[in-house]
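Researcher: I'd like a structural prediction for the single chain below. Treat it as a standalone chain; there are no partners to consider.
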Amino acid sequence: MESSAGALSTERREQLEEIDASWCPSWPVTWQRCFHLVRMHLDAGEALPTEAGEVLHQGEDLGRWVQSVRLGWDQLTGVQQWLCEQVLGIEPAPEEEKPKPRRTQADKWTANLAAARQFFEREGHLKVPRKHVETVLSEDGREDQYRLGAWVNNQRSRAATLSPERVEQLSMVGMRWS
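Model: Treating it as a single chain, here is the predicted structure.
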């Protein structure tokens, strides 16, 4: 036998659906509130807000919500996606509009080590002036710049706390530790 604990009565469910037919108890209340406010905004003949701070209504930043929906499209349920597209006219953000994922510390280490390796191969040493900036051509043809002088100096001062693997990697590209 199924438990009815916490279940809505038929009458209460009908009342809620009369207020908002797209009401769903499993979705975050904030999501539903913003959806409803954007729908009311559009029903009033206004344009879909697309920028944060563009439209504030009842304490909600509707532009920020629309942005978060577009950028987080894949986290929405199929029904939420359908409602956003069909009712509000919101479409998912194209890949080029999505922010790039943040680089991890390991990624930063690898990139700076590659810059150190490039400097060493060109100069024959790793006595990098403190203010030196090394330009490295990335795989996609972009020129990335690394504050190599400061990075090498920081690694030298942190030698006691670096992992043996990192000490070895730097030693292989000509790091003088003293």
